[in-house]
Each structure stands twice: as structure tokens, then as C-alpha cells.
Amino acid sequence: MTAERPFENQRILITGGTGSLGQVLTRRVLGGEMGRPAAVVIFSRDEAKQHFMRLQHQNVATATDEVIYRNAKDALQFHIGDVRDRWSLASVLSKTDIVINAAALKQVPTCEYYPTEAVRTNILGPENIVSIIESQQLPIKVVVGVSTDKACKPVNVMGMTKAIQERVFIQGNMRCRDTRLVCVRYGNVLASRGSVIPLFHEQIRRGGPLTITTPDMTRFLLSLDDAVDTIFAAVRDGQPGDTYIPRAPAARMTDLARVLIGDRPVKTVITGIRPGEKVHEILISEEEAQRVEDRGHFYAIRSLLPEVQAQRAAGSVLSREYSSSDDVLDEPALRELLTQNRLMVGDADGETGELLR
Questions:
Q1: CB 297 within 8 A of CB 231
Q2: Is 73 among the residues known to form the active site?
């Protein structure tokens, strides 16, 4: 493991690795831009998603004994398990060098209706990772906790549990002295499952209307590759207790709807803001703004725990919160961004499938 090629000959564990982020992350890790890993292990509880991911990786249409049973021989390996279960997690952590924790309950309504389940996955899962490393004194080099803008000034259960996840990993640096634990936090990911663009595409396909909760709503717009870049930067350059934030463009949802509709005879309707929903995404709060360093394409929030903070630059590069309302793209710039990411209506995208014709 070197500073420029931190994945070289390392065993990488991706929890929740069958999700939208996990699949792009896996492809990029196996691509070798951060070094050629010895193995990439996908740890999740969904056997169907693992099965289809295995077939996709091996570029075959149907399973054979060779495809299924050569699991331990491939660079990409699959492990059924749950971050809630210490036993299954301990068995895979014992053979791991770098952990990227993408396992989460992330749907806001689901977490509101099942708050205890959100606690078990989003808080107790990370605590299991930290406590296993601590109790077994595992020589794991880096742990990255994947978080969300909703953890910043949280107003819903999903955000509250992810905010505590961040604190569990950051404080974990005091318990696992030989492991560097960092977090990444970002907002809406373009074309990921559950995000607004696939919803708008489907509504356009059906002839409308497009549903917008409030005319003032803005969101950061980040591609899945941008999200992976943030993880890579945190692995490569993050100091213990850092939370990495990408500098991302933002847009009004009304502008996004107009750009996607184009000249089609499709209407939009305002439905009213939903419980637990914010008008603007906030990635860095006023309090956190006092502890921010410039890391090029990223901001890094320093830990508030003095025991965790390494030697840092004095002061901060921000004087106020970092919000999606700060610097909103106009419609031509938004159209260009969507075109570059092949997310205009009619594009076939790797994550969302063939959206519209």
C-alpha cells in the first residue's frame, strides 16, 4: 500500500456493495486506478443482487457451476452477511485491509416507519465494525464511512442515524489506533435508485405530470463517479477523523424538470413538501464550517475531538454553511451536465437501464 496506489495488493471489503454506489465503486476499484487489489469482497444480505452482479462482472447471461463455485478464486468475491450480525461481519473483517461501509437503510420514509431498523443498520452496523477491529486488534488500515447530506442538521430518522454513524467512525480513531477511520458525505446522486432523475424520466414516459414538492427546492447534483472520487480521495489523503465533502454543482428542481421535459407537452405539479424533507441540501453546517480545510476538489471537516485531530492548518476556509442554494446552475449549464452524464430523456444509462425511447 502506497500513498498514490493505496489499493495495491490489498483486500477491499465493500459492505452494501450491491447498491448503485457499490457497483460503480467495485468497477472503479477493479479498474486499478488506485492500484490493483488482491481481492474485492462484496458483503451484503441480498443474494439475488449478488447473483446478478456476479453474472454482470463475468459477462455471462446465465449461471453455471464454474461461475458460481469459483467465487474464492476471483478478484471479485461475494459474501452473504449483514453488518448487524457481528459473527458474519467478524469472519470477513479478519481477512480485510480496507473497509468501505456503504451498507445503509437510506430511504427516508422507510426509516421514519421503522426507526429501530434504521438504528440497527446505520448505527449498530458501524459500531460492530469498530468494535470488532478494536477487540480483535485487526490490522485494518483504513475504514471509510459513507454518509449523506441528511446527516448535517438532521430533521429525519435517516439523517439522525447517519449523523451518529459519522460520530461512531470518527470516535473510533481513539479505539483503533492503528486504523485510520474517515467519512465521506454527499447529496443527491444522479441516476441512483430512488433519486429524482429516474422518477422524472418515468413520469415523462407516462405523459406526466412531473411532481415537485416546492418551487424553491434545490439539490446538489453528483454523478456516481464523483461519489467514488470522493471515497478515493478520503482513502488516499484523509486524516483520522476527517469528513470529506465534494464541491458539487446544484440546481433548482423546477429547472431540472424543464430541462428534462424539453418541448414535450408534459406538465408539472407542486405537491407540497414531504415530512422530513429539506428545501435545500446542506453538506456543511455553520458549526462545522469553523473546522473546514481546502483539499482541492473537496472540503474536509476536521474532527471536533481534540484527541483525534492531527496537526492542522489554523482557521477555516468557510465562514458559513455550505448549501445547495449557494451557487445554482442555470438551465444551459444544467442541460450540459445532464448531457455529459447521458441523463437526458432518451439516453440509456448504465444504472437506470433503458429509460425512454
A1: no
A2: no
| CA pair distance 106, 203, nearest whole angstrom | 22
CATH number of 11-354: 3.40.50.720
Q: Give the whole-angstrom CA distance, residue 38 versus residue 34.
A: 12
- Give residue 1's pLDDT: 66
The pLDDT tens digits of the residues spanning 334-354 come to 999 999 888 888 764 434 333
HEC-encoded secondary structure of the chain: CCCCCCCCCCEEEEECCCCHHHHHHHHHHHHCCCCCCCEEEEEECCHHHHHHHHHHHHCCCCCCHHHHHCHHHCCEEEEECCCCCHHHHHHHHCCCCEEEECCCCCCHHHHHHCHHHHHHHHHHHHHHHHHHHHHHCCCCCEEEEEEEHHHCCCCCHHHHHHHHHHHHHHHHHHCCCCCEEEEEEECCECCCCCCHHHHHHHHHHCCCCEEECCCCCEEECECHHHHHHHHHHHHHHCCCCCEEEECCCEEEHHHHHHHHHCCCCCCEEECCCCCCCCCCCEEECCCHHHHEEEECCEEEECCCCCCCCCCCCCCCCCCCCEECCCCECCHHHHHHHHHHCCCCCCCEECCCEECCC
Least confident range from 144-148, 211-215, 272-276, 284-288: namely 272-276
C-alpha grid cell for residue 64? 453455471
The arithmetic mean of pLDDT across residues 152-158, rounded, is 95
What is the pTM for the complete model shown?
0.90
Per-domain residue ranges of the chain: 11-354
Spatial neighbors of 146 by CB under 8 A, at least 6 apart, are: 21, 100, 101, 102, 104, 183, 184, 231
174-214: pLDDT as tens digits: 999 999 999 999 987 876 766 788 899 999 999 999 999 99
CA contacts within 13 A on the Cβ side of 280: 15
Predicted pLDDT of residue 343: 87
**For position 105, what pLDDT does the model report?**
94
Query: Which one of 106, 150, 162, 278 is the catalytic residue?
Result: 150
